[in-house]
Amino acid sequence: MKKNVRIVINGAEHRAEVEPRLLLVHFLREVAGLTGTHIGCETSLCGACTVLLDGMAVKSCTVLAVQADGRSITTIEGLAASENLHPIQEAFWEEHGLQCGYCTPGMILCAHDLLQQNASPSEQEIRDGIGGNLCRCTGYQHIVNAVKAASRKMNQRQRAAARAAD
Amino acid sequence: MFPRAFHYHRAGSLKEAATMLSQLGPEAKLLAGGQSLIPLMKLRFAGPPHLVDLNFIPGAAYVKQDAGGLRVGALTCHADIEDSPAAAAIPILHDCAAGIADVQIRNRGTIGGSLAEADPSGDWAPVLLTLNADVRCLGPKGERTVPISKFVVDAYTSALGEDELIIEVLIQAPPKSSGGAYIAFKRSAPVYASASAAVRLAMEDGVCRDAAIVLGAVGLTPVRALEAEAALRNNQVTAKTMEAAAEAARAAADPQPDMRGSAEYKRQLVTALVKRGLEVALKRARGEKVELSHIYA
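YS: structure for the whole thing
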């Protein structure tokens, strides 16, 4: 029996009638048409499908769409507030934190979860934080560098915003 | 990969979930965090005709301290236990919660789901066995409290009845001057441990008054290493007695060879993990703060 769900994705409400077995990642890609979230291993090991569910990183291949009913999702398409890139996206670009790009949306959203909880993570904390995301191209060093750079950028911008508010 | 089609039921309360289970029959499954169940359903190892979703039940996820001890709601995710100030008073809980799989899985997976699945490689059961935790269960006939030692029955088999669910885990604070530690060794973040060890030492005037040593992933259920405990009890905890305990734990382990390693490799891991766990537990019993979590290599 199908079920009606209402899921807010990147600020926009999506309503659909779905089979209960529909996975969130398929809802995002096929119902909402947002293909920035990639499907990798499909067994909850690679992290390519990572999105934010109410701000927390989750693997969207291991969440049913019906479980996200009434909740908010952020995908890579919705991370930046405007036409500009998000500081984490800028940092991945500048630090060459990607090659083929397949893992990148998941890496960036996982880095976002990490930096929300720990604005200035150490290298080990970054490596632990992205432990659930596989990259087969970069050897991870440039990704770790990118997360460090993103941390610096976000901290600088926060200080600048605080100064402006004073 | 899609799961087989199923009927979806959303429980509004824990009691309603138990009622739904009794009405839907023994093939219905509960959906908590889904971090094991959903992959099993996608791989078609599991194909329940009915799923009862617990995620919309208000107030079933919490960590709180009261006169009865630390109470952890069944729907509490590992990440919330990792971050809980109340749970931080018992460092072994943080050791365990902070290292389960990866952040995405810790954000979804729950303590109740992990215990109910009773995977031989699950992390919570060994830890809770060293703490003599109780599992509060609810069924249509009411509540009962099951000691964790009676809760884990066999591989993938808990003491839960067909129409019962876990509502809460109850943990008594260990006595002062005791210390615990948990280390799981795994090949990468998202996978289950190759072997793990949970230890607790209760010290008095430099002598070990009580010890608990429980091994994970090296048997069909967590293995309580009784002879290893006996090697420490009423003895000073020295390099020599720790060595004896680690050797006894190695003998108690009954690992299966699999893609995570040979049986001999896992026995060697047990020796090293027990030794390292005991060193940390001893320091903690003396009041030292020691950071510890799972190791992957």
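YS: worth flagging: The interface with chain B takes residues 1, 3, 19-23, 42-45, 47, 50, 53, 56-59, 61-64, 66-67, 110, 113-114, 128-129, 131-133 of chain A (CB under 8 Å).
IM: good catch. Also The helical segments of chain A are 24-31, 87-94, 104-117, 123-129, 141-165.
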